[in-house]
Amino acid sequence: MILTVTPNPSLDRTYEVPSLERGEVIRASGERMDPGGKGVNVARAVAAAGRRTVAVLPLGGAPGALVAELLAAQGIEAAPVPVAGATRSNIALAESDGVLTKINAPGPRLSAAEQELLLDTVRAHSRAADWIACCGSLPRGLRPSWYADVVARAHAGGTRIALDTSGRALVEAVRARPDVVKPNAEELAEAVGRPLVTVGDALQAAEELRGMGAGAVLASLGADGQLLVDAAGAWFGSAHVRDVRSNVGAGDSSLAGFLIAGGGGPEALASAVAHGAAAVRLPGSVMPAPGDLDPAAVTVTSDVPVGRALTEPVTA
């Protein structure tokens, strides 16, 4: 069982539009409403693969009730933590050329009692988990070291933990030695405090995160592919994707694929790449099912192309 923890979930509305024009009325060609948040997306991808998952998340107000209904409709076992504030609602605008514009709300502020109940709920369900995936931003009220506390508690209970967050929360959690961290290129650059222009830059940054405490680093490099660095070495995985519809949740789908395949080594990286490539061909934040995957299109090599320029370098 894969337990997911989403401290700041959302109700996600995605609209497909021809293009964005400020000040104009834009007619959508398609729309979706999904339960959102990075950990929720991981749970949805795990469930789509036919694997058991339990989603721990604080829920409040009418949006929270709708998130619970949508999770149940997708066959996902939820462990909701009731909170006084309303769950946030996010909007994504997906243009026909693949460009995505997102508007993310801040979410509710969690009280001290709600924070403790969230930790207790994670603890109660972690005993049966093979992996805990802690994902996304922290809501107002939670200190940046919150994820580090969860990592320490998970290891004390003998459970492996994967982490997908950013900024100070990532840096502090890495010091608690999570088994896997999954930054994208921007988050990786922010963590080490310098630009990433080539795959080699990303490799060096991932190695630095390992030196700070991360057991393994699974780095998403956008259209260029994914990089896995652990104690056994480094691997680079890629897949050519045409007809990109939406990259919402693609990184979350990748993490799910990685954990489903065992959470370590080149085979797990290949699964991560296949899941991420399948996700971007689907509308909104739809998570891929096994029939959407194309493992034959995935290439994984230990010959990391360190000199290759990133398609979307992080220069700031």
UniProtKB/TrEMBL annotation:
Annotated ranges, domain Carbohydrate kinase PfkB: 16-286
GO cellular component terms given for this protein: cytosol
Keywords: ATP-binding, Kinase, Nucleotide-binding, Transferase
Keyword DNA-binding: no
GO MF term set: 1-phosphofructokinase activity; ATP binding
InterPro entries, per database record: 1-PFruKinase, PfkB_dom, Ribokinase-like, Tagatose/fructose_Pkinase
Listed name of the protein: 1-phosphofructokinase
